[in-house]
Amino acid sequence: MKGNEALAEAAIQAGCSFYAGYPITPQNEIPEYLSRKLPAAGGTFIQAESEVAAINMVYGASACGARAMTSSSSPGISLKQEGISFLAGAELPAVIVNMQRGGPGLGNISASQADYFQAVKGGGHGDYRMIVYAPYNVQELWDLTLLAFDKADEYRTPVMVLGDGILGQMMEPFEPTPYVRPLLPEKTWALGGCVNRQPNVVRSLYMADGELERRNGLLQEKYRTMKARDVLYQTYDVGDAELIVVSFGIAARIAIAAVRKLREEGWKIGHFRPVTLFPFPERQLRELAGPDRRFMTVELNAGQMVEDVRLAVNGRSDVLFYGRPGGAIMTPEELYERLKDELKG
Amino acid sequence: MTTTEKPMTLKSLTHKNDNLSGGHRMCSGCGAPTIVRQVLLACDEPVVIANATGCLEVSTCLFPYTAWKVPWMHSAFENAAATASGIETMYRSLRKQGKLKKEMKFIAFGGDGGTYDIGFQALSGAMERGHQLLYICYDNGAYMNTGIQRSSATPFGADTTTQPVGSAVQGKTQRRKDLTRIMAAHNVAYAAQASPHNWKDLMTKVKKALATNGPAYMGVVAPCNRGWRTQTNDSIVLSRLAVDTCYWPLYEVEAGKWTINYDPKERKKPIVEWLKPQGRFKHLFAPGNEGMLEKFQKLVDDDWESLHKMASAFGAK
What we know:
The structure holds two protein chains of two kinds. Chain A has 13 helices and twelve strands. By secondary structure, chain A is α/β, with parallel strands linked by helices. Chain A has two domains: 3-229, Thiamin diphosphate (ThDP)-binding fold, Pyr/PP domains (Rossmann fold, 3-Layer(aba) Sandwich), CATH 3.40.50.970; 233-344, Rossmann fold (3-Layer(aba) Sandwich). In chain A, helix 10 (249-264) links the parallel strand 8 and strand 9 (269-274). In chain A, helix 1 (3-13) runs parallel beside helix 2 (29-37) and helix 3 runs parallel beside helix 5. Chain B has helices spanning 10-13, 31-41, 55-60, 80-96, 112-117, 120-129, 179-184, 199-211, 225-228, 235-244, 272-275, 290-314; strands at 47-51, 72-74, 105-111, 134-139, 190-194, 216-221, 251-254, 257-260. Chain B has an eight-stranded mixed sheet with strand order 2-1-3-4-6-5-7-8, sandwiched between helices.
């Protein structure tokens, strides 16, 4: 099973009952799989006429209480930004999958991580954030997709699964752990017919004096809660490390291979992998920071997450960067050499 | 025509420059490059091309190479008509300012995904504003570039990767959007359907479209052996069959005047002759699906009859 198919099956297991998408490489296996399997599972599959239409179909389905998902790749995700902002503003749950490819523009169809800023800083307009999960193997594509639906419902917010072309296309063994639905509040806000009750209203338009500011305050409160409760990360050998490599997603696969090899050779090196890119593990990184320790982010872009690591350590450690932008990919050997040079000083 | 035309013969065409060079990466047997060659051969003035994302765009322009010997621009999937509008407007402005003397022509190419679906809004806008440009859709009836997903040009019953044949559904349940008619309903200066098997008809239409005063649209049937599941040497046969079965009638709407350019009359072939060689319709010939074949034939017959009504009501008197 390809990563894209694992993610699509996880969505079905998580009770996704509505999917709308539009063709773009390298994520086509997601709509193709769901066009075959989702209707059989009682859900609805729609191929929209554009990415803009797909995200707004998700908006409509989510407002009616469905667990709704859309997927695309970088240029398509750019087109969806208005809809994502509307989902956040109207507090509607949805899962948005971005299997990133090289950019900007049409770019290429190789794996990339250049949509980090767009995903974590809010690519659409307004003061909103999404929970952003960054899986680094097919197992996590499965696990984090299950979790994404729950978190979307829990917070009534769009949640992004930020993968890339390699993760989507790769095949590797994984354990399809059964989905266990947590206790979640009823969707009493959903538009499901208002016989014997007051009509519900789903909106992101607040025109009355001070109303929108209050609304934004509530959203920010929600984001603070996410920061306190939903940070996920993984560390390898950071205890005595003089150099900590920070990377996420497919870059972490490469980086961890290089770090392990250096560790075996006796170098004091470790790895830190943010699993949630928002909320970002800033406190955890700050606690690791100190004058005797350096950090290096390794990314498939021109240097994006490095800014958040610098903010997190706030001058207490030097933060270096190594990256390959534009859909290019580094090898573990290349990174090994680069890190070894750094360790030698 | 601005120039006195000699009759167009194959021999005369061999003396003209081929403006789409060989060595591009389109699949062997693809209908699109044949169509593009015919279109470019029909252009007598300098021409500028805008190209939507799609097979034609990715396969003819693999950086740092290009197969195009004419100015060519690609921006994204949804906006070839908008890009062409911008180029054409700037051209008019430069002409008005006296900075450009040459007469130039503007053509936008898009596949059916980039034309019928995501590019529809931009196309409609460009036609309504009345830019002096020709939009040509090479219509292979699915998103072939990304792996044969259905589009609103996909024929009824066809098997695609997002409307696949299974136990519950037998391919596409909807009929295709009739885009040429929708373009005609924009009251454009010229709208037509053509097919690469009839190069003379196609090239005459391109010449007419470029000579007309106002926006023009052409839909051209483009066999795709990957998506249609056919032999690579069958493209021209299949485009001819599309016309002979009246699935893809050759007609034009010139300033509101409807003309059927080719009427097979009693030689009109049953639609199964076009469907049968195509793997994407294989399931329609399975027992139990006879009704779908009948429905397909009826859709074609009804459209053909309706086209005749338009031609007799609004044709040349």
